[in-house]
Model the fold of this input.
Amino acid sequence: MKPALTRRQQEVYDFLREQAADLHPSPSLEELCRAMDLNSRGSLHKHIRALVEAGLVEPMSRGRGIRLAAGADAPGHLPFLGYIAAGRPIEAVVDPREVEIPAWLRGARPCYVLEVRGESMVDEGILDGDRVVVESRDHARNGEIVVALVDDREATLKRIEQRPGKTVLHPANAAMAPLEFAPERVAVQGVVTGLLRSYR
Amino acid sequence: MKPALTRRQQEVYDFLREQAADLHPSPSLEELCRAMDLNSRGSLHKHIRALVEAGLVEPMSRGRGIRLAAGADAPGHLPFLGYIAAGRPIEAVVDPREVEIPAWLRGARPCYVLEVRGESMVDEGILDGDRVVVESRDHARNGEIVVALVDDREATLKRIEQRPGKTVLHPANAAMAPLEFAPERVAVQGVVTGLLRSYR
DNA sequence: CACCGTTGTTCTCCTTTCGTTCTCTCCGGT
DNA sequence: ACCGGAGAGAACGAAAGGAGAACAACGGTG
Done:
Protein backbone atom coordinates (compact mmCIF):
# COMPACT_ATOMS: atom_id res chain seq x y z
CA MET A 1 0.00 0.00 0.00
CA LYS A 2 2.71 2.50 -0.89
CA PRO A 3 1.95 3.79 -4.38
CA ALA A 4 4.88 6.23 -4.27
CA LEU A 5 4.31 9.93 -4.58
CA THR A 6 3.80 11.70 -7.86
CA ARG A 7 5.80 14.78 -8.71
CA ARG A 8 3.22 17.29 -7.54
CA GLN A 9 2.41 15.36 -4.39
CA GLN A 10 6.07 15.44 -3.49
CA GLU A 11 6.18 19.18 -4.03
CA VAL A 12 3.19 19.72 -1.79
CA TYR A 13 4.67 17.49 0.88
CA ASP A 14 8.03 19.26 0.73
CA PHE A 15 6.35 22.60 1.05
CA LEU A 16 4.44 21.46 4.10
CA ARG A 17 7.66 20.31 5.73
CA GLU A 18 9.27 23.65 5.01
CA GLN A 19 6.38 25.46 6.59
CA ALA A 20 6.48 23.26 9.64
CA ALA A 21 10.21 23.75 10.02
CA ASP A 22 9.61 27.47 9.89
CA LEU A 23 7.04 27.32 12.66
CA HIS A 24 4.23 28.46 10.46
CA PRO A 25 0.77 27.43 11.54
CA SER A 26 -1.01 24.70 9.61
CA PRO A 27 -2.26 26.22 6.40
CA SER A 28 -5.76 25.80 5.08
CA LEU A 29 -6.49 24.55 1.62
CA GLU A 30 -6.89 28.04 0.26
CA GLU A 31 -3.67 29.30 1.77
CA LEU A 32 -1.89 26.32 0.35
CA CYS A 33 -3.44 27.03 -3.02
CA ARG A 34 -2.01 30.51 -3.08
CA ALA A 35 1.38 29.28 -1.94
CA MET A 36 1.43 26.54 -4.54
CA ASP A 37 0.20 28.89 -7.25
CA LEU A 38 -3.03 27.02 -7.77
CA ASN A 39 -6.47 28.40 -8.48
CA SER A 40 -8.54 25.46 -7.44
CA ARG A 41 -8.94 23.97 -4.01
CA GLY A 42 -10.36 20.85 -5.53
CA SER A 43 -7.17 20.05 -7.37
CA LEU A 44 -5.07 20.49 -4.27
CA HIS A 45 -7.43 18.35 -2.30
CA LYS A 46 -6.68 15.44 -4.53
CA HIS A 47 -3.00 15.67 -3.66
CA ILE A 48 -3.68 16.02 0.01
CA ARG A 49 -5.90 12.99 -0.03
CA ALA A 50 -3.10 11.03 -1.66
CA LEU A 51 -0.71 12.15 1.08
CA VAL A 52 -3.21 11.17 3.74
CA GLU A 53 -3.53 7.71 2.26
CA ALA A 54 0.26 7.47 2.18
CA GLY A 55 0.22 8.20 5.90
CA LEU A 56 2.29 11.35 5.57
CA VAL A 57 -0.38 13.86 6.49
CA GLU A 58 -3.03 13.81 9.14
CA PRO A 59 -6.60 13.62 7.93
CA MET A 60 -8.02 17.09 7.88
CA SER A 61 -10.92 18.12 9.99
CA ARG A 62 -12.78 21.35 9.85
CA GLY A 63 -10.98 24.54 10.35
CA ARG A 64 -7.70 23.39 11.74
CA GLY A 65 -5.74 23.19 8.56
CA ILE A 66 -3.40 20.62 7.14
CA ARG A 67 -0.83 19.15 9.46
CA LEU A 68 1.86 16.63 8.91
CA ALA A 69 1.27 13.25 10.41
CA ALA A 70 2.93 13.16 13.77
CA GLY A 71 2.28 9.54 14.55
CA ALA A 72 3.17 7.72 11.38
CA ASP A 73 6.58 9.04 10.49
CA ALA A 74 7.60 10.23 13.92
CA PRO A 75 8.77 7.49 16.17
CA GLY A 76 10.99 10.35 17.31
CA HIS A 77 14.16 8.39 16.82
CA LEU A 78 16.50 7.73 13.94
CA PRO A 79 19.25 5.12 13.71
CA PHE A 80 22.75 6.28 14.55
CA LEU A 81 24.92 4.64 11.92
CA GLY A 82 28.38 5.80 12.90
CA TYR A 83 31.01 8.39 12.23
CA ILE A 84 31.98 10.20 9.09
CA ALA A 85 35.28 11.90 8.44
CA ALA A 86 36.76 13.28 5.32
CA GLY A 87 38.94 10.72 3.62
CA ARG A 88 37.85 7.58 5.35
CA PRO A 89 34.92 5.26 4.96
CA ILE A 90 32.11 5.57 7.39
CA GLU A 91 32.97 3.85 10.60
CA ALA A 92 30.01 1.71 11.24
CA VAL A 93 29.14 1.58 14.87
CA VAL A 94 28.74 -1.83 16.30
CA ASP A 95 25.80 -1.31 18.47
CA PRO A 96 22.95 0.25 16.51
CA ARG A 97 21.87 2.99 18.82
CA GLU A 98 18.99 5.30 18.14
CA VAL A 99 19.03 9.06 18.53
CA GLU A 100 16.04 11.24 19.25
CA ILE A 101 15.58 13.69 16.38
CA PRO A 102 12.79 16.26 16.07
CA ALA A 103 10.53 15.79 13.09
CA TRP A 104 11.29 19.20 11.61
CA LEU A 105 14.89 18.20 10.91
CA ARG A 106 14.05 15.07 9.00
CA GLY A 107 13.76 14.79 5.26
CA ALA A 108 10.98 13.14 3.36
CA ARG A 109 12.74 9.86 2.80
CA PRO A 110 14.26 7.56 5.38
CA CYS A 111 16.96 9.25 7.38
CA TYR A 112 19.84 8.31 9.59
CA VAL A 113 22.33 10.07 11.83
CA LEU A 114 26.09 10.38 11.54
CA GLU A 115 28.58 12.01 13.84
CA VAL A 116 31.14 14.25 12.22
CA ARG A 117 34.84 13.66 12.77
CA GLY A 118 37.35 16.26 11.76
CA GLU A 119 37.42 19.85 10.74
CA SER A 120 36.75 19.66 7.03
CA MET A 121 33.49 21.60 7.22
CA VAL A 122 34.22 24.17 9.92
CA ASP A 123 33.61 27.11 7.63
CA GLU A 124 30.06 25.89 7.11
CA GLY A 125 29.46 25.71 10.82
CA ILE A 126 29.86 21.95 11.05
CA LEU A 127 32.25 21.09 13.84
CA ASP A 128 33.91 17.97 15.14
CA GLY A 129 31.42 16.03 17.18
CA ASP A 130 28.31 17.48 15.56
CA ARG A 131 25.60 15.09 14.50
CA VAL A 132 24.06 15.44 11.08
CA VAL A 133 20.74 14.10 9.89
CA VAL A 134 21.16 12.52 6.48
CA GLU A 135 18.33 11.81 4.09
CA SER A 136 18.99 8.73 1.95
CA ARG A 137 19.18 9.84 -1.64
CA ASP A 138 21.25 8.93 -4.68
CA HIS A 139 21.18 12.37 -6.22
CA ALA A 140 21.55 15.92 -4.99
CA ARG A 141 21.06 19.48 -6.12
CA ASN A 142 24.07 21.69 -6.53
CA GLY A 143 25.02 23.42 -3.33
CA GLU A 144 23.63 20.78 -1.01
CA ILE A 145 25.83 19.15 1.57
CA VAL A 146 26.09 15.47 0.78
CA VAL A 147 27.56 12.24 2.01
CA ALA A 148 29.55 11.30 -1.06
CA LEU A 149 31.28 8.00 -1.72
CA VAL A 150 34.33 8.32 -3.96
CA ASP A 151 35.52 5.20 -5.80
CA ASP A 152 33.40 3.08 -3.47
CA ARG A 153 35.97 3.59 -0.76
CA GLU A 154 36.01 7.00 0.84
CA ALA A 155 32.90 8.58 2.30
CA THR A 156 33.13 12.29 2.87
CA LEU A 157 30.94 15.17 3.88
CA LYS A 158 31.16 17.91 1.29
CA ARG A 159 29.20 20.56 -0.52
CA ILE A 160 28.55 19.27 -4.02
CA GLU A 161 28.76 20.99 -7.37
CA GLN A 162 27.82 18.94 -10.40
CA ARG A 163 28.99 20.33 -13.72
CA PRO A 164 29.00 18.81 -17.17
CA GLY A 165 31.88 16.39 -17.26
CA LYS A 166 33.00 16.71 -13.67
CA THR A 167 31.80 16.73 -10.11
CA VAL A 168 33.40 19.06 -7.60
CA LEU A 169 33.38 18.40 -3.87
CA HIS A 170 33.97 21.54 -1.83
CA PRO A 171 35.29 21.24 1.67
CA ALA A 172 34.54 24.19 3.86
CA ASN A 173 37.94 24.75 5.31
CA ALA A 174 40.40 27.31 4.09
CA ALA A 175 43.20 24.78 4.45
CA MET A 176 41.68 22.31 2.00
CA ALA A 177 41.20 22.59 -1.73
CA PRO A 178 38.11 21.53 -3.71
CA LEU A 179 38.33 18.06 -5.18
CA GLU A 180 37.36 17.32 -8.76
CA PHE A 181 36.29 13.92 -10.01
CA ALA A 182 34.75 12.34 -13.03
CA PRO A 183 31.03 12.06 -12.27
CA GLU A 184 31.12 8.26 -12.38
CA ARG A 185 33.53 8.14 -9.48
CA VAL A 186 31.24 10.00 -7.10
CA ALA A 187 28.16 8.33 -5.64
CA VAL A 188 25.78 10.38 -3.53
CA GLN A 189 24.64 8.44 -0.52
CA GLY A 190 22.57 11.07 1.16
CA VAL A 191 21.90 14.73 1.72
CA VAL A 192 22.28 16.56 5.01
CA THR A 193 18.93 17.94 6.16
CA GLY A 194 19.70 18.85 9.72
CA LEU A 195 22.40 19.35 12.30
CA LEU A 196 22.47 18.98 16.06
CA ARG A 197 25.13 19.91 18.54
CA SER A 198 25.25 19.35 22.25
CA TYR A 199 27.28 21.65 24.47
CA ARG A 200 28.41 19.80 27.53
CA MET B 1 -9.82 14.38 24.71
CA LYS B 2 -7.54 16.42 22.51
CA PRO B 3 -9.56 18.02 19.76
CA ALA B 4 -6.63 20.15 18.56
CA LEU B 5 -7.05 23.86 18.45
CA THR B 6 -8.82 25.67 15.71
CA ARG B 7 -7.38 28.70 14.02
CA ARG B 8 -8.84 31.44 16.14
CA GLN B 9 -8.43 29.47 19.32
CA GLN B 10 -4.73 29.26 18.62
CA GLU B 11 -4.55 33.02 18.10
CA VAL B 12 -6.29 33.68 21.36
CA TYR B 13 -4.04 31.24 23.15
CA ASP B 14 -0.92 32.77 21.61
CA PHE B 15 -2.02 36.21 22.70
CA LEU B 16 -2.55 35.03 26.24
CA ARG B 17 0.94 33.53 26.27
CA GLU B 18 2.38 36.85 25.14
CA GLN B 19 0.54 38.72 27.86
CA ALA B 20 1.61 36.30 30.52
CA ALA B 21 5.23 36.48 29.40
CA ASP B 22 5.12 40.23 29.84
CA LEU B 23 3.67 40.11 33.34
CA HIS B 24 0.39 41.68 32.35
CA PRO B 25 -2.49 40.95 34.68
CA SER B 26 -5.08 38.43 33.55
CA PRO B 27 -7.29 40.23 31.08
CA SER B 28 -11.07 40.27 31.23
CA LEU B 29 -13.25 39.22 28.37
CA GLU B 30 -13.79 42.77 27.23
CA GLU B 31 -10.14 43.65 27.33
CA LEU B 32 -9.41 40.56 25.31
CA CYS B 33 -12.15 41.53 22.89
CA ARG B 34 -10.54 44.85 22.17
CA ALA B 35 -7.13 43.27 21.83
CA MET B 36 -8.45 40.62 19.47
CA ASP B 37 -10.47 43.15 17.49
CA LEU B 38 -13.79 41.58 18.38
CA ASN B 39 -17.11 43.28 19.07
CA SER B 40 -18.81 40.52 20.95
CA ARG B 41 -17.88 38.98 24.27
CA GLY B 42 -20.06 36.03 23.48
CA SER B 43 -17.96 35.06 20.51
CA LEU B 44 -14.77 35.23 22.48
CA HIS B 45 -16.24 33.22 25.28
CA LYS B 46 -16.75 30.32 22.92
CA HIS B 47 -13.03 30.24 22.21
CA ILE B 48 -12.12 30.49 25.83
CA ARG B 49 -14.41 27.62 26.66
CA ALA B 50 -12.71 25.53 24.02
CA LEU B 51 -9.32 26.34 25.52
CA VAL B 52 -10.57 25.39 28.97
CA GLU B 53 -11.78 22.05 27.67
CA ALA B 54 -8.41 21.54 26.03
CA GLY B 55 -6.80 22.06 29.43
CA LEU B 56 -4.82 25.09 28.36
CA VAL B 57 -6.67 27.71 30.36
CA GLU B 58 -8.01 27.70 33.88
CA PRO B 59 -11.75 27.99 34.26
CA MET B 60 -12.67 31.60 34.83
CA SER B 61 -13.92 32.67 38.16
CA ARG B 62 -16.44 35.38 38.47
CA GLY B 63 -13.95 37.73 39.95
CA ARG B 64 -11.60 38.67 37.23
CA GLY B 65 -9.28 37.24 34.76
CA ILE B 66 -8.43 34.57 32.27
CA ARG B 67 -5.45 32.61 33.46
CA LEU B 68 -3.37 30.08 31.63
CA ALA B 69 -3.35 26.59 33.06
CA ALA B 70 -0.12 25.48 34.64
CA GLY B 71 2.17 23.04 32.93
CA ALA B 72 0.44 22.99 29.57
CA ASP B 73 3.59 22.53 27.57
CA ALA B 74 3.58 19.65 25.17
CA PRO B 75 6.02 16.91 26.11
CA GLY B 76 9.16 16.96 24.05
CA HIS B 77 8.62 20.56 23.14
CA LEU B 78 10.12 23.80 24.40
CA PRO B 79 8.74 27.33 24.06
CA PHE B 80 10.16 29.38 21.23
CA LEU B 81 10.72 32.78 22.74
CA GLY B 82 11.92 34.74 19.75
CA TYR B 83 15.10 35.94 18.18
CA ILE B 84 18.41 36.92 19.58
CA ALA B 85 20.36 39.25 17.38
CA ALA B 86 23.81 38.20 18.30
CA GLY B 87 25.09 41.49 16.96
CA ARG B 88 23.87 44.31 19.12
CA PRO B 89 20.19 44.95 19.77
CA ILE B 90 17.80 43.78 22.42
CA GLU B 91 16.20 40.41 22.54
CA ALA B 92 13.20 40.39 20.29
CA VAL B 93 9.51 39.85 20.74
CA VAL B 94 7.74 36.83 22.04
CA ASP B 95 6.39 34.40 19.54
CA PRO B 96 4.60 31.84 21.63
CA ARG B 97 5.01 28.71 19.63
CA GLU B 98 6.66 25.49 20.62
CA VAL B 99 9.50 23.61 19.02
CA GLU B 100 10.20 19.93 19.21
CA ILE B 101 13.56 19.43 20.90
CA PRO B 102 15.18 16.10 21.70
CA ALA B 103 15.81 15.45 25.34
CA TRP B 104 19.55 15.05 24.94
CA LEU B 105 19.94 18.72 23.99
CA ARG B 106 18.17 20.04 27.02
CA GLY B 107 19.70 21.16 30.26
CA ALA B 108 18.62 20.26 33.74
CA ARG B 109 16.65 23.42 34.41
CA PRO B 110 13.79 24.87 32.38
CA CYS B 111 14.87 25.63 28.83
CA TYR B 112 13.68 27.69 25.93
CA VAL B 113 14.61 28.16 22.30
CA LEU B 114 15.95 31.22 20.51
CA GLU B 115 16.71 31.75 16.88
CA VAL B 116 20.03 33.38 16.11
CA ARG B 117 20.21 36.46 13.97
CA GLY B 118 23.51 37.73 12.70
CA GLU B 119 27.00 36.51 12.24
CA SER B 120 28.69 37.27 15.51
CA MET B 121 29.30 33.62 16.40
CA VAL B 122 30.20 32.16 13.02
CA ASP B 123 33.63 31.07 14.17
CA GLU B 124 31.98 28.86 16.77
CA GLY B 125 29.80 27.24 14.16
CA ILE B 126 26.68 29.21 15.08
CA LEU B 127 25.14 30.63 11.95
CA ASP B 128 22.34 33.00 11.12
CA GLY B 129 19.06 31.14 11.42
CA ASP B 130 20.30 28.46 13.80
CA ARG B 131 18.20 27.68 16.83
CA VAL B 132 19.83 27.38 20.20
CA VAL B 133 18.50 25.65 23.28
CA VAL B 134 19.05 27.85 26.30
CA GLU B 135 18.96 26.65 29.88
CA SER B 136 17.72 29.31 32.28
CA ARG B 137 20.52 30.12 34.67
CA ASP B 138 21.89 33.22 36.34
CA HIS B 139 25.47 32.05 36.40
CA ALA B 140 27.86 30.33 34.05
CA ARG B 141 31.22 28.66 34.00
CA ASN B 142 34.02 30.21 32.06
CA GLY B 143 34.02 29.22 28.43
CA GLU B 144 30.31 28.53 28.19
CA ILE B 145 28.21 30.28 25.59
CA VAL B 146 25.65 32.43 27.32
CA VAL B 147 22.76 34.74 26.71
CA ALA B 148 24.07 37.80 28.48
CA LEU B 149 22.16 40.94 29.32
CA VAL B 150 24.36 44.02 29.46
CA ASP B 151 23.09 47.02 31.43
CA ASP B 152 19.60 45.50 31.33
CA ARG B 153 19.33 46.52 27.72
CA GLU B 154 21.27 44.46 25.27
CA ALA B 155 20.94 40.71 25.08
CA THR B 156 23.72 39.03 23.19
CA LEU B 157 25.04 35.58 22.55
CA LYS B 158 28.67 35.34 23.57
CA ARG B 159 31.29 33.09 25.09
CA ILE B 160 31.87 34.26 28.63
CA GLU B 161 35.07 34.68 30.60
CA GLN B 162 34.73 35.83 34.18
CA ARG B 163 37.90 37.17 35.78
CA PRO B 164 38.42 38.96 39.04
CA GLY B 165 37.25 42.51 38.47
CA LYS B 166 35.95 42.15 34.98
CA THR B 167 33.79 40.04 32.73
CA VAL B 168 34.80 39.50 29.13
CA LEU B 169 32.32 38.59 26.40
CA HIS B 170 33.98 36.99 23.41
CA PRO B 171 32.25 37.10 20.07
CA ALA B 172 33.39 34.43 17.67
CA ASN B 173 33.92 36.51 14.62
CA ALA B 174 37.26 37.78 13.48
CA ALA B 175 35.71 41.14 12.67
CA MET B 176 34.58 41.78 16.25
CA ALA B 177 36.61 42.45 19.34
CA PRO B 178 35.98 41.04 22.82
CA LEU B 179 33.97 43.28 25.12
CA GLU B 180 35.00 43.93 28.70
CA PHE B 181 32.58 44.99 31.39
CA ALA B 182 32.45 45.39 35.10
CA PRO B 183 30.90 42.19 36.44
CA GLU B 184 27.84 44.05 37.78
CA ARG B 185 26.88 45.21 34.35
CA VAL B 186 26.57 41.71 32.92
CA ALA B 187 23.66 39.47 33.86
CA VAL B 188 23.62 35.90 32.65
CA GLN B 189 20.17 34.88 31.50
CA GLY B 190 20.95 31.43 30.31
CA VAL B 191 23.48 29.01 28.96
CA VAL B 192 23.42 27.42 25.53
CA THR B 193 23.10 23.67 25.86
CA GLY B 194 22.26 22.71 22.30
CA LEU B 195 22.04 23.84 18.74
CA LEU B 196 19.84 22.81 15.83
CA ARG B 197 20.01 23.75 12.19
CA SER B 198 17.72 22.87 9.32
CA TYR B 199 19.05 22.72 5.80
CA ARG B 200 16.69 23.62 2.93
C1' DC C 1 -32.63 49.28 49.95
C1' DA C 2 -32.92 50.49 44.80
C1' DC C 3 -29.91 51.90 41.07
C1' DC C 4 -26.14 51.31 37.99
C1' DG C 5 -22.26 49.46 35.67
C1' DT C 6 -19.39 45.47 35.14
C1' DT C 7 -18.36 40.63 34.21
C1' DG C 8 -19.26 35.88 33.06
C1' DT C 9 -22.56 33.05 30.70
C1' DT C 10 -25.85 31.33 27.44
C1' DC C 11 -28.68 31.83 23.69
C1' DT C 12 -30.17 32.83 18.93
C1' DC C 13 -29.20 34.50 14.08
C1' DC C 14 -26.17 35.38 10.41
C1' DT C 15 -21.97 35.36 7.35
C1' DT C 16 -17.80 33.41 6.05
C1' DT C 17 -14.76 29.80 5.55
C1' DC C 18 -13.43 25.21 4.72
C1' DG C 19 -13.39 20.40 3.29
C1' DT C 20 -15.33 17.57 0.04
C1' DT C 21 -17.10 15.83 -4.25
C1' DC C 22 -18.15 16.30 -8.83
C1' DT C 23 -17.45 17.19 -13.85
C1' DC C 24 -14.64 18.86 -17.69
C1' DT C 25 -10.52 20.14 -19.78
C1' DC C 26 -5.62 19.97 -21.04
C1' DC C 27 -1.13 17.86 -21.71
C1' DG C 28 2.54 14.21 -22.07
C1' DG C 29 3.92 9.61 -22.58
C1' DT C 30 3.73 4.20 -23.98
C1' DA D 1 -5.80 6.59 -29.76
C1' DC D 2 -5.65 5.48 -24.68
C1' DC D 3 -4.34 6.59 -20.09
C1' DG D 4 -2.97 8.97 -15.86
C1' DG D 5 -1.36 13.21 -13.85
C1' DA D 6 -2.67 17.79 -13.35
C1' DG D 7 -5.55 21.91 -13.11
C1' DA D 8 -10.06 24.75 -13.28
C1' DG D 9 -14.40 25.54 -11.60
C1' DA D 10 -19.03 24.77 -9.63
C1' DA D 11 -21.73 23.16 -5.96
C1' DC D 12 -22.99 21.42 -1.36
C1' DG D 13 -23.09 20.71 3.63
C1' DA D 14 -20.98 21.42 7.82
C1' DA D 15 -18.34 23.86 10.87
C1' DA D 16 -16.04 28.13 12.39
C1' DG D 17 -16.45 32.76 13.44
C1' DG D 18 -18.87 36.69 14.71
C1' DA D 19 -22.79 40.08 16.22
C1' DG D 20 -25.97 41.02 19.42
C1' DA D 21 -29.50 40.31 22.93
C1' DA D 22 -30.75 38.55 27.31
C1' DC D 23 -29.74 37.05 31.98
C1' DA D 24 -27.69 35.99 36.63
C1' DA D 25 -24.20 37.27 39.95
C1' DC D 26 -21.54 40.58 41.90
C1' DG D 27 -19.72 45.52 43.74
C1' DG D 28 -20.10 49.83 44.37
C1' DT D 29 -22.70 54.59 45.13
C1' DG D 30 -26.34 57.28 46.44
Q: What stands out?
A: Chain A touches chain B through 35 residues (CB under 8 Å). The mean pLDDT of chain A is 84.
